[in-house]
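Readers of this paper often ask what the protein records in our data store actually look like. Such a record has a labelled line for the sequence and another for the backbone structure tokens. Nothing more is needed to write down the fold, since each code stands for a local backbone conformation. The record that follows is passed on verbatim for readers who wish to inspect the format.
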Amino acid sequence: MCPHCKKPGKIVKFGSYQRASDKKVCQRYRCKNCQRTFSETHYSIDYRLRKRYINQAVFRSLCSGVSQRRCAILFGVHRDAIARRLLRFGLCAEHNLKVYRQSRPSVTQLLFDELETFEHTKCKPLTVAIAVEDKSRKILALKVGKIPAKGPLASFSRKKYGFRPCERRACLESIFQDLKCCLASQGLVKTDQSKAYPPFIRRFLKFWNHQASPGKRGCVVGQGELKEGHWDPLFSLNHSFAMIRDGLKRLSRRTWCTTKSPKHLEFALNMYAWFHNLLLESKNRKDLRLDWLSSPSPESL
């Protein structure tokens, strides 16, 4: 199908050209309907990117605790080049996570909870709903939404930034809708004792058992699976949360790298989730390469 007129028709070859960045010879095509031309690289994730050789390294760095500005310094590019790649990689990772869920066998043990962060300032908090498969620690779905400020900051936030909608319910519904394709008819879901979760579990997971465990703080560093002297039933989830905060610079504790857009945070989280699952599945991490073949069309980027 032609990417310009969006009509199915006859498409013929129309010469070729040598790409300047990597000297690759690319085929060009011409549409008989609109008479416009396009190349075979039009639907690739690196369409119109000049320095394609840094894509793999940039993706790994952004998922390994390196900020966007530091990536720009390390790879000798402008920070806008890293920002553009974040958007493309995030959409690619979101698409591949969807494909991963559809190809995943029936999941019978699920962990679910929310992580709180903020955009620009603590007066504008965000919630990140994440679903993790138990034992394997693979991230299945996630969603970012806005929530109003709580506690002493609530009145100050309303005075300075106005009314802030609560998107928590919409995030929870989106998560459970995404999980429908990979969950078994019966299973066990583990959460903390939040009162917001049981209604959604009864609605979307009617025949699942729900185990609610009290959330507690960890003892000391190095005892991640122990919580105040006993075994943590939500260890796979809490361990994944700790790895996410360590892998994404904007989510680290006491950092000045803050999120400016909830959608960009969701792109970064999708990137890390896909990278996290690939690391858990790979046998030889030294030769691990990210697969761009199942990426969406650049027209949506």
Q: What stands out?
A: Residues 11 and 31 are 5 Å apart (CA to CA). The mean pLDDT is 85. The chain is about 35% helix and 25% strand.
